[in-house]
Amino acid sequence: MEANSCFFFGLLLLLASTMSLANAKVQHHEFLVQATKVKRLCKTHNTITVNGMFPGPTLEVNNGDTLVVKVTNKARYNLTIHWHGIRQMRTGWADGPEFVTQCPIRPGGTYTYRFTIDGQEGTLWWHAHSSWLRATVYGALIIYPREGTSYPFPKPKRETPILLGEWWDGNPIDVVRESTRTGAAPNISDAYTINGQPGDLYNCSSEDTVIVPIGSGETNLLRVINAALNQPLFFTIANHNFTVVGADASYLKPFTTSVIMLGPGQTTDVLISGDQLPARYYIAARAYQSAQNAPFDNTTTTAILEYNSAPCPAKCLTSKPIMPRYQPSTTQIQSLPSATALKVLGKLRSQLILMKTSSSQLA
Q1: Counting CB atoms within 10 angstroms of each CB, which of 55, 175, 280, 314 has the fewest?
Q2: Are 69 and 29 a contacting pair, CB within 8 Å?
Q3: CA atoms within 13 A on the CB side of 162
Q4: CA dist list (Å): 137 to 248, 282, 350
Q5: What would the pLDDT profile of 163-196 be if each residue is shown by its tens digit?
Q6: Signal sequence: where (predicted)?
């Protein structure tokens, strides 16, 4: 009798595993890495991009899918692509760190990455893992629930990736090479960006400021990624609160805050409700700097949250957020033990960071 029970239980497990595999897909993508003319801060640069896009393409998969990405390198630099946060289960050679899991892809060469995403749902990202090419070679990697399952929170009306980055008004490879030559710290960035654009507070940038739409009464999901090379960043939206529901491709027990901080490479999923007067509201990010007397980029990048029922010309009034100050002497940071896993899909970052701040108005 006991043997029959064990056999029946094993059969059920095998059937469940087979059904899960049947729903999984193999997704194929191609990355062409090459120099592309990109104009920012009044100047045009030959910028290394993927498929001519800055930031690069967003990859969307389901938990359980296999991702196959053929990378062709037409740039003049060696490079690799790293899948930041992906658990490489017996596919370590697909992880991407240069000279660690693979030799770099030489100019004119190709390499195909193949790996299965298992037990992760939420937001991750990919980026170059060679020198400072990741200043412009990066993009979002969105992992949806397995087919037939859903989020552990109400489905949002709209989902928007928000990629925070750093921009140098020159070749970032030259920046790091000069630092290596002199032994000095690298020159600080000239701007921060939201989805590749610096925003209204920088020269020659306001016409291309990113617009994020929202409807009155809607609840939208923002997938926020800090793709900056060196800088932790505060992120906030004027007059709106966030409900934090995930971090680094793991779900969290929801909690509410008006501002989040992300370290370089970190991702955070937040819900935002269209519960304010229909208008335009600044989305903003700027540095959190803990080191005393160390130079850093103290500028602020902006985008605009625009209600669908209240579109207006670029010069119309936009509400400004209250931003945390840069230094820890005026910003008390505490880890939140309440930021715990809601649905365990694997190991979870045990803590998130929330700010209780002395604040200043966006300049």
Answers
A1: 314
A2: yes
A3: 36
A4: 20, 26, 29
A5: 999 999 999 999 999 988 998 888 999 999 999 9
A6: 1-24
CB atoms within 10 A of CB 343: 16
Residue 293: its pLDDT value, please? Answer: 74
Phi, psi of 93 (to 5 degrees): -65, -10
Residue type, 35: A
pLDDT of 344 above 90: no
Domain boundaries, given as residue ranges, for the chain: 21-144, 159-361
- CA-CA distance, 305 to 286, in Å (whole number)? 17
And the tokens for 212? 């994020």
Query: What mean pLDDT is predicted for residues 18-31?
Result: 78
Token pair of 199 as six digits: 């925003």
With H, G, I as helix, E, B as strand and everything else as coil, classify residue 301: strand
pLDDT digits over 229-253, tens only? 989 999 999 999 999 999 999 999 9
d(CA 54, CA 294): 29
Is CATH 3.90.980.10 what the domain over 21-144 is classified as, yes or no?
no
Q: Could you write out the DSSP letters of every residue in 20-67?
A: HHHH--EEEEEEEEEEEEEEETTEEEEEEEETTBSS-PPEEEETT-EE
> Which among 140, 145, 146, 138 is positioned nearest to 167, based on CA atoms?
138
Give the three-state DSSP class for 6. Answer: helix
Tokens of 86: 């992906």
Confidence at residue 335, expressed as pLDDT on a 0 to 100 scale: 34
- Rounded CA-CA distance 104/78 in Å is 6
Question: Is the backbone peptide bond immediately before 337 cis, with ω within 30 degrees of 0?
Answer: no
Q: In Å, how far are 8, 14, 18, 125, 146 from 11, measured between CA atoms?
A: 5, 5, 10, 37, 22
- Strand-by-strand arrangement of the 59-62 sheet: 59-62, 138-144, 122-128, 81-84
**Size of the chain, expressed as the number of residues it contains:** 363
Which CATH entry fits the domain spanning 159-361: 2.40.30.20, 2.60.40.420, 3.40.30.10, 2.40.50.140? 2.60.40.420
Contacts of 357 (CB under 8 A, 6+ apart): 259, 324, 325, 330, 331, 332
Strands annotated E in 41-78 = 43-50, 59-62, 66-73
Six-digit token pair at 165? 């980055």
